[in-house]
Amino acid sequence: MSAKKSDWIDWLKTIIITVIVIVLIRMFIAVPIVVEGPSMLPTLENNDRLIVDKISLVFKDPERFDVVTFHATEKKDYIKRVIGLPGDNIEYRDDQLYVNGELVEEPYLQEAKQKLDPNATYTTDFTLEDIPGGSITVPDGHVFVLGDNRKNSTDSRHLGFIPLEQIVGIARLSYWPVTNIGIVD
């Protein structure tokens, strides 16, 4: 076999192996996504680029306050924050989150709340019974999600509870724009 043909075969093998590795990583480990719209402001901005971890969902369900992507429709994925876990009773009263009757702080909203008129509310009052498919608690196998931009977000208040099997992954890293590089909080 000539050296030229051997080089060509080596290059072809390298390209095929690289493509296989990339496909496997995207299918099972991590995937890049682009944030579309303002629903996660101030945490994430429109056109931010993130790495979403898919592999950790094999070992455990998302935790409260994880930022997750999920299949909202057959063609559209949304990115929101997990607020309620299976069995939780979620309520917003006087712009405060209550989980199972206990007040829970949301430090990721402090910046946005400080910019509000003192008499304005960031999150309107509701209980789980008020949402589509409403119940007293988050059903088994589901989560309750909200966008951080509570006044401009299509989330569980409109979509209802999100089945765990629709969750694609957990947003872990922001890599673009460069000024926003870091761990997703």
Descriptive report:
- By secondary structure, the protein is an alpha+beta fold.
- It has a single domain (32-183), classed as Umud Fragment, subunit A (Ribbon).
- 21% of the residues lie in helices and 30% in strands.
- The chain is built from four helices and twelve strands; from the N terminus they run αββαβββββαββαβββ.
- The strands form two sheets. Strands 1, 2, 3, 4, 9, 10, 11 and 12 form an eight-stranded antiparallel beta sheet that branches. A four-stranded antiparallel beta sheet has the order 7-6-5-8, with no helix packed on it.
- Strand 6 (96-99) and strand 7 form a beta hairpin.
- The longest helix has 26 residues, at 3-28.
- It starts with a helix and ends with a strand.
- The model has no long low-confidence stretch (mean pLDDT 90).
Low-confidence stretches: none
What is the element string, with H for helices and E for strands? Answer: HEEHEEEEEHEEHEEE
Helix content: 10-25%
Mean pLDDT, to the nearest integer, reads 90
Number of helices: 4
| Ends apart, CA distance between termini | 56 Å
Within CATH, the superfamily carries the name Umud Fragment, subunit A
Main location: membrane
Domain Peptidase S26: 8-176
Membrane topology: Single-pass type II membrane protein
GO molecular function: serine-type endopeptidase activity; signal peptidase activity
